[in-house]
UniProtKB/TrEMBL annotation:
InterPro entries: BPD_transp_1_N, MetI-like, MetI-like_sf. It comes from Brevibacterium ravenspurgense. GO terms for biological process: transmembrane transport. Residues 1-26 are annotated as: Disordered. Residues 123-357 form the ABC transmembrane type-1 domain. Keywords: Cell membrane, Membrane, Transmembrane, Transmembrane helix, Transport. The keyword Membrane applies. GO terms for cellular component: plasma membrane. It is a multi-pass membrane protein. This is Dipeptide transport system permease protein DppB.
Length: 366
């Protein structure tokens, strides 16, 4: 007769149950955190949209602001009535919000185009510039910040700290003009205007189902001359806009890496003979990266604001360039639509950043 021995289920014991509860709590904490962050997008966009709507009406209706002086009083009154701007302001507001919920941003006054068409045509140009600028910011900020932290209170650290402050504090249009002077006049090796040369733009406009991201479209058709042309046009605008964020990243990486390198687990690694390079790049860098990811959403907002000056300086025809043109034309319908779209982009970007931070550092979920 064989005796049967019942093996207790360890997982069902107190320790196992505690582990299950912790896992369940972590999952529910992450879900609750992401839900709250997602729901915050709605009031953020609504408040900004409301502010923009009423501020744009301070000087009167968009028709009068844009076309006043170019039409007779009778023609102007007719256009105002046809557009519905003679109705009470609160009625116009609720109608505008209702149209936004249906994806209707209105029609521009100056060139009679749907605002959604303007956003689709020029939004990708701004997106491409911001992506290029982020690459520059990471290339400048992260390695130089690590070098500054390792050379703390020495000459390289002092030089890099001054560089970071200057990069952050210098106006983007001044950097742009300086780059155009150096690389367009004194040493003419890079193009100083536009997203691409005329021949490349004609080529990319003929791409079937274009993404309107010039680099992606050039890679899709396999034309490396076009790829080189697009990249060469992007160098100076990306540097001008990326240096501002790069200076911020440099200072953040330096400060947080210095704090992390003094942590107890880093000292324990040193005592076991782990190399300084491995301690810095593998063990200390990830915790130091969390503040960078956290502020990235705000930096995207600053980049979108800086894109107005950068695109105007380099004639980069994106949303910033068009926003400047519509402001000059006092086309408040177009301005409203572009600002609302930028608000949505910033809010969604911050939500994505919150997701990344939640996975990097579980402590923020609670």
């Amino acid at each position: 007769m064989t005796a049967s021995v019942e093996i207790p289920d360890i997982a069902s014991g107190p320790a196992g149950q505690q582990k299950k509860k912790a896992t369940k709590s972590s999952g529910s904490g992450l879900g609750r955190y992401l839900l709250v962050r997602f729901l915050l997008i709605i009031p953020t966009v609504w408040i900004l949209t409301t502010l923009v709507f009423f501020l744009m009406r301070v000087t009167g209706d968009p028709i009068t602001a844009s076309l006043g002086g170019r039409l007779t009083k009778e023609q102007l009154a007719q256009r105002v009535a046809e557009a519905g701007y003679d109705r009470p302001l609160i009625v116009q507001y609720f109608e505008y919000m209702g149209n936004l919920l249906r994806g209707d941003f209105g029609t521009t006054v100056s060139d009679n185009r749907p605002v959604t068409e303007v956003l689709a045509q020029y939004g990708t140009a701004t997106l491409e510039l911001v992506l290029f600028s982020l690459v520059v910011a990471f290339i400048v900020g992260i390695p130089l910040g690590m070098i500054a932290a390792k050379c703390r209170d020495r000459a390289p650290d002092a030089v890099l700290r001054i560089f970071g402050i200057l990069a952050y504090a210098t106006p983007v249009f001044f950097i742009g003009l300086l780059l155009k002077l150096v690389f367009g006049v004194l040493w003419p090796v890079l193009p100083v205007a536009g997203r691409a040369s005329g021949s490349t733009e004609i080529l990319l406009d003929g791409v079937v189902a274009p993404t309107r991201l010039y680099l992606i479209d050039a890679l899709r058709i396999g034309d490396f001359a076009a790829v080189n042309d697009v990249l060469s046009h992007a160098v100076l605008p990306a540097i001008a806009l990326g240096l501002i964020t790069g200076g911020t990243f440099l200072r953040l990486v330096r400060t947080n890496l210095i704090g992390t390198l003094g942590a107890q687990y880093i000292e324990s690694g040193r005592s076991r003979g782990v190399s300084e390079f491995r301690l810095t790049t593998r063990h200390a860098f990830r915790p130091a990266l969390i503040p960078i990811v956290t502020v990235m959403g705000m930096q995207i907002a600053l980049m979108l604001a800086g894109a107005v000056l950068t695109e105007t300086t380099f004639e980069w025809k994106g949303l910033g360039f068009q926003l400047f043109q519509y402001l000059q034309a006092r086309d408040f319908v177009a301005v409203q639509g572009i600002v609302v779209m930028l608000a949505v982009i910033v809010a969604v970007t911050n939500f994505i950043v919150d997701i990344i931070v939640a996975f990097i550092d579980p402590r923020v979920r609670y």
